[in-house]
Amino acid sequence: MALAPGDNATLFSAGAASTLRLIVYLAAAAILMIVDHRGGYLQTLRGHASLLVEPAYRLAALPADAARATRTAVASQSALVAENRELREALLLAQARLNRADAVAAQNERLQDLLEAQKSLGLSVQMASLLDIDIDPGRRRLVINRGTRQGVSVGQPVIDALGIMGQVVEVLPNTAVVMLLTDPGHAIPVTIERTGMRTIAYGDKEARDLLELSNIPTSADVQVGDKLITSGLGGRFPSGFPVGEIRDVRNDDTGMFATALATPAAAINRSSEVLLLHDLPQPYGPPQPQVDATAPAPEPVP
Question: What protein family is recorded (predicted)?
Answer without folding.
Answer: Belongs to the MreC family.
